[in-house]
Amino acid sequence: MDKIDKQILAILQEDASTPVAEIAEKVNLSSTPCWRRIQKLEEDGVVLRRVALLDANKLNVGVTVFVSIKTNQHNAGWYAQFSNTVKLIPEVVEFYRMSGNIDYLLRVVVPNIAAYDAVYQKLTQSNALFDVNASFAMEQIKHTTALPLDYAGLD
């Protein structure tokens, strides 16, 4: 990955709908070589997909809840059931297995506390969970989907 690839990625991370001709102009290439580079970044799995970023408040899911979960179950069968349950809940937009004091961390988006309670009921209904702790975000100070590119190409 060279400097031009990183420039292309920076542009795509800012706005994936930027026309190839405009990207090419910004990175001092003609359209065809620029398009080929973008295709290669997609083929190599660097660009996973191009998506639209939506306004959560305008879609009435402006309440963000971080849910930390502890369990005393760590076998493969339990994990498969739990992860399948979580993956089927559309309000869960991020799901991580953690190290440290908690086992799992979820980011949930909902319109209100009642909607979070419905998610909580789904989570706890069929899964043996030791502790579920919810923290409601009061203010979003920084949110980006752009990844830092300074480390790209370093092995």
From TrEMBL:
Residues 1-64 form the HTH asnC-type domain. The keyword Transferase does not apply. Coiled coil: none annotated. It comes from the Bacteria. InterPro entries: ArsR-like_HTH (IPR011991), AsnC-type_HTH_dom (IPR000485), Dimeric_a/b-barrel (IPR011008), Tscrpt_reg_AsnC-like (IPR019888), Tscrpt_reg_AsnC/Lrp_C (IPR019887), Tscrpt_reg_HTH_AsnC-type_CS (IPR019885), WH-like_DNA-bd_sf (IPR036388), WH_DNA-bd_sf (IPR036390). The keyword Chloroplast does not apply. Pfam families: AsnC_trans_reg, HTH_24. Keywords: DNA-binding, Transcription, Transcription regulation. This is Lrp/AsnC family transcriptional regulator. It comes from Collimonas rhizosphaerae.
